[in-house]
Specification:
Length: 274
């Protein structure tokens, strides 16, 4: 009888059902757990894992759930938009997998990047960099139905990385309360970043979006430099910012929005990916 310890492969409990290539090193993985995972809410993430180079240890990372628009999504299938980080531990192995291959999925929906109670006077702004658009795709339909206005903003390096742009533009045709702003930073021309739209008042001037703590919630997901998460003085509650010109600072100082916390509801919600 073998005395070897069980390897990570023994924990595999899901199958990669389909892989859609969006661009070089950017794919949508559709994963079917052997047993459906209950309790899913817009904004949740899951952890997935694959065995690393030692053939035993499981390398696990969290990934936001995403959701394509269109015909009703299969609620048991997990859709993940993932970029390959060449120097990373998990993603190079993940991108070597094929449809039908097995992997581990932690059987739990997790996260606090969740929607507040929505109402018809609300403006919801969903701002992302790179794959940070994923959780916003799970929120989009709910928000557009419930809120006065939804502003979906995404910033990527190349336009081929706008994984859901076509779907969003089509959806916009039947949902006039949706504003869609896609920004590309590495294809020449004048560069505009998400923060510019808030700092320079472009959202108000060019898109008629007014921002006020009473009616607006902003969700920001992806690169920590875009979000600019402050440190908070425990005693005074004063905020200090290491990254200058991040979104949180602009929203707090220019518009008077506050950071959302479970016991102190605010209007700024963020999820940083690293
Ligand atoms: C709550 C949460 C949700 C996440 N959801 C997603 C998601 O939906 N899609 C996704 O691709 N990643 C997502 N990530 C990041 C993911 O967990 C991994 O960190 C990433 O895939 C890199 O894993 P790795 O093992 O290959 O690299 P690691 O060895 O973990 O190296 C990490 C380095 O990779 C870079 N990096 C990490 N994530 C990204 C990214 N998305 N884009 C560009 N550079 C990155 C950073 O420089 C970071 O220091 C999420 C992270 C968190 C905390």
């Amino acid at each position: 009888m073998s005395t070897d310890k069980p390897s990570g492969v023994d924990t595999y409990n899901a199958t990669i059902e389909r892989i859609e290539t969006v661009a070089d090193g950017l794919s949508i993985f559709f994963i079917r757990p052997d047993t459906p995972i209950p309790g899913r809410l817009p904004g949740h993430y899951v952890s997935i894992g694959l065995v690393g180079p030692d053939g035993k240890k499981l390398i696990r990372r969290p990934y936001s759930l995403s959701q394509s628009l269109g015909p009703a999504a299969d609620p048991d299938l997990l859709e993940l938009l993932i970029i390959r980080v060449p120097e990373g531990d998990l993603t190079p192995i993940l991108f070597d997998q094929n449809e039908g291959d097995r992997l581990f999925v932690r059987p739990k929906m997790v996260g606090t990047y969740l929607l507040p109670k929505l109402d018809a006077d609300m403006t919801l702004i969903l701002a992302s960099t790179g794959t940070g658009v994923a959780p916003h795709m799970t929120m989009l339909e709910t928000c557009v139905d419930a809120c006065k206005q939804v502003v979906m903003m995404e910033c990527v390096r190349y336009s081929t990385e706008l994984a859901y742009a076509e779907q969003i533009r089509q959806f916009q045709q039947t949902h006039p309360n949706l504003v869609y702003i896609s920004l590309v930073t590495r294809e020449g021309g004048a560069k505009r970043y998400i923060q510019d739209y808030f700092r320079d008042g472009i959202l108000e001037k060019e898109h008629g979006v007014s921002i006020a703590p009473e009616t607006t919630h902003v969700f920001a997901c992806g690169n920590p430099a875009m979000i600019g998460i402050p440190k908070e003085d425990r005693k005074t509650g004063a905020l200090s910012y290491d990254t200058s010109d991040g979104l949180v600072e602009i929203l707090a100082t220019r518009y008077g929005l506050t950071i959302h916390k479970p016991r102190q509801p605010g209007q700024i919600h963020f999820e940083k990916y690293w």
